[in-house]
Structures are given as structure tokens and as C-alpha cells.
Design goal:
Blueprint: E1 19-22, E2 32-44, E3 49-55, E4 59-64, E5 67-71, H1 75-87, E6 95-100, H2 105-110, E7 118-123, H3 126-135, H4 137-140, E8 148-152, H5 155-160, E9 166-172, H6 186-195, E10 196-205, H7 213-224, E11 229-236, E12 244-251, H8 267-272, H9 278-283, H10 289-295
Length: 302
């Protein structure tokens, strides 16, 4: 294990030895710093720089191109919400597709649902998958489930080859400034719409309302032209920019009350949850007024 003072991955600031500092043009004028005890892996894939670190306060952390992707302490706030919001909006999700999610965290949550028959996962970066299996076993355990099927490849090409195959599609992408850029465009969502069965639901990583409202509004607008119902929810997570990240949720059918789950976790499943509950599902769609007005979302009636 390498000395953190000699680390070379983006984010390991030589002026702050032993600290990972996330500075990025996607959130100008602000930064996040994490004290690093050990460097577990640093290297480059064909697409990006990958880092895995043992931090003092947040456990094992993975970064891509100097941007924090997950930490052991708070990952559940993201993985449970991006998976269970769409899964509990479907009455019987049997066939699920995950685009991105190479660490396995979304798959871990999806296969908790007894109704699932098969769950396909396509991520472009095999190095992310490999290092997750080595260092992020609390996430990659999802890939060990017999219902999971992992493909390393291009997510757009993968989903474009499917027609009316999935009940739920989950897009666990990194930020658009990188190899995940194609997963934020209209062409991708047309392919997702085609891949979904009638009654299908898609939930995507939806960026941060404090930083990316224009991008969120653009995505909601073109999804609104493709899907019958479109909404935006969010979760709080301390190690993501501004401590918040959202989810763009779309249903093929019109008039779907996205804030109302149609099923609830069984007692044992709920007991295992660290973040998701039916109550927080509903609450996550209540946006602060600046975001609600910008996105043109009506206020929820009690």
C-alpha cells in the first residue's frame, strides 16, 4: 500500500500531503477535502484515472478523474435511493437494466427485490469493476448474485440493442464531463424508452440542484417529450458536491404519481436499509422553491 504523500492521482494535492482535494470546473469556487491514510490503487483505464483510498473519516473511497464516486460511510444514501425509488414505483419489477454502476452498489440493492428474475449491468470501464471487486466488496457483492449479469461495454450501444425488455432501467453514471457524457443526451433516452416495457420506469443520476439546474432543466424538458411522466427527487450525501445529488425519474405512462411508492419493503428488507423508506421516498420529491420553480414542477398537494 502506497504512502499517501507520494500519490499521483488527480486530487492528491502535493501542497496538502496526505489529503485528497476535489477541485473541478463543474463546481467552480468550491472544493472537498478528505484525509487519506492509505493509497489502495492508482491507475488509468482507457477512459479515466481511477483511484481507491482508505480515508480517515469515510472508509474506502473511489475516485474517477479526481472526483469522488463513493465512500464507505455514505454510499447508501445514493445507492439505496437511485435503486429503490424506481423499483418501488413498479408493481412487479422482474427485468432490470443498470447502465454504469461499475462498483456494484446499485446491483446490490436491485437484487434485494424478490420479484427480480434478471438484472443486466453494463459499465464502460473494466478497471472500475476490477478494483471494486478487490477493494469495494461492500458494493461489488452485488455482482456475485446469481440474478446479476455484468457486461463491460458502451452503455448507449447496449441499451440501443434492446426493445421492450426491461421493467426498470437505472442509470448510475458519473458526471457528464467524461466517458458518461453520452448518457445525458436525448439519443440515449430515446433508446431507454424503446428498451422499456409498457409501464416501465427509468431513474438516472440527476446532478446537483445547487450547481446544475440548467442541465437538469434541459434533461427534464427532452424527457418530457419522450415519457408520459417526469419528475425530480434528491438525496443528501456529504461527499458529493454541495452535499446533495438528484435523480431524474421518468415513467412511460402518463399521470404516474412518482412520489407514491406502489409497494413497500418487507420488514426484513426495511430493517437492512440505512437510508430509504417509503416516507423518505415521498419526501425526496419535495424540492426547495428555487429548484421547483426553475424546473417547472407543481407543488405537491398534501
Amino acid at each position: 500500500m502506497a504512502d499517501p504523500s507520494t500519490a499521483t492521482n488527480p486530487g492528491m494535492n502535493p501542497d496538502m500531503k496526505g489529503w485528497f482535494v476535489e477541485v473541478n470546473d463543474q463546481w467552480p469556487g468550491q472544493a472537498m477535502a478528505m484525509k487519506v491514510d492509505k493509497v489502495l490503487f492508482e491507475g488509468s483505464s482507457d477512459f479515466q484515472r481511477v483511484g481507491v483510498y482508505e480515508t480517515s473519516a469515510y472508509g474506502t473511497m473511489m475516485t474517477l478523474d479526481g472526483v469522488i464516486q463513493s465512500t464507505q460511510r455514505d454510499e447508501h444514501a445514493y445507492h439505496e435511493m437511485i435503486a429503490h425509488i424506481p423499483m418501488f414505483l413498479h408493481p412487479n419489477p422482474q427485468h432490470v437494466c443498470i447502465i454504469g454502476g461499475g462498483d456494484g452498489g446499485v446491483m446490490r440493492e436491485v437484487v434485494r427485490h424478490p420479484s427480480v428474475i434478471s438484472a443486466d449491468n453494463c459499465d464502460i470501464d473494466g478497471v472500475v469493476v476490477e478494483q471494486s471487486k478487490v477493494h469495494l466488496k461492500h458494493l461489488s457483492c452485488g455482482f456475485e448474485h446469481p440474478k446479476s449479469h455484468l457486461t463491460v461495454g458502451d452503455g448507449l450501444a447496449f441499451i440501443s440493442s434492446k426493445t421492450a425488455q426491461y421493467d426498470v432501467v437505472i442509470v448510475d453514471s458519473s458526471d457528464p464531463d467524461g466517458p458518461a457524457g453520452t448518457l445525458f443526451g436525448e439519443t440515449f433516452y430515446k433508446a431507454v424508452h424503446k428498451a422499456l416495457k409498457p409501464g416501465g420506469i427509468v431513474c438516472s443520476q440527476g446532478e446537483c440542484m445547487w450547481l446544475h439546474l440548467d442541465l437538469i432543466k434541459s434533461m427534464m424538458d427532452f424527457c418530457g417529450g419522450l415519457f408520459g411522466t417526469v419528475g425530480y427527487a434528491y438525496t443528501t450525501i456529504p461527499t458529493y458536491p454541495s452535499g446533495q445529488i438528484g435523480f431524474l425519474i421518468s415513467a412511460k405512462e402518463e399521470g404516474v404519481p412518482l412520489h407514491k411508492p406502489v409497494r413497500e419493503p418487507e420488514e426484513a428488507m426495511q430493517e437492512a436499509m440505512k437510508y430509504y423508506s417509503p416516507e423518505i421516498h415521498s419526501a425526496s420529491f419535495v424540492l426547495p422553491e428555487f429548484a421547483r420553480k426553475k424546473l417547472g414542477i407543481p407543488r405537491q398537494k398534501a
